[in-house]
Amino acid sequence: MEVPLTLGDTARLWDEQNIDLTSAASQVGDASTAGFSDAVTGSASTFASTWRGLIDDLAGAAERQADSLRGALADYMGVDLSVEQSFLPPELQEYR
After folding, report:
1. 40: Cβ contacts below 8 Å, ≥ 6 apart
2. Global pTM exceeds 0.85
3. 18 lies in a domain?
4. Are 33 and 52 in contact (CB under 8 A)?
């Protein structure tokens, strides 16, 4: 069965993207503006804050994608089990 493995592997890769993006968002958001002159410190802080928000949004999207793939995997496995059970004689079927 290639489909479940592919869905599971792809969900894991999206999870890794979420982790990487979450880390990047923290690093961007925590970046110091101490090296900037007073004239640009506010702009640099706004820039970092804005980018942190955008990266956080991307991290959330990656996590939602992973969750959707896991949902698809669960649905696929459920349908597969249901179809498999339909081919068994009634006395060998598993009921839950």
Report:
1. none
2. no
3. yes
4. no
**Considering the domain boundaries, does residue 50 fall inside one?**
yes
Number of domains in the chain: 1
For the chain, the helix, strand and coil percentages under 3-state DSSP, each to the nearest 5: 85, 0, 15
Instruction: Please check whether residue 96 lies inside any domain of the structure.
Output: no
Q: What is the distance between the alpha carbons of residues 70 and 12, in angstroms, rounded to a whole number?
A: 9
What domain range includes position 19?
A: 2-87
Indicate whether 95 belongs to any domain: no
If one counts every other C-beta atom within 10 angstroms of the C-beta of residue 65, the result is 17
Q: What is the pLDDT along the chain (96 residues), one digit of tens a residue?
A: 577 789 899 999 999 999 999 999 999 999 999 999 999 999 999 999 999 999 999 999 999 999 999 999 988 888 877 777 777 677 666 666
Q: Say whether 63 sits in a helix, a strand or coil.
A: helix
| Amino acid 92: pLDDT | 66
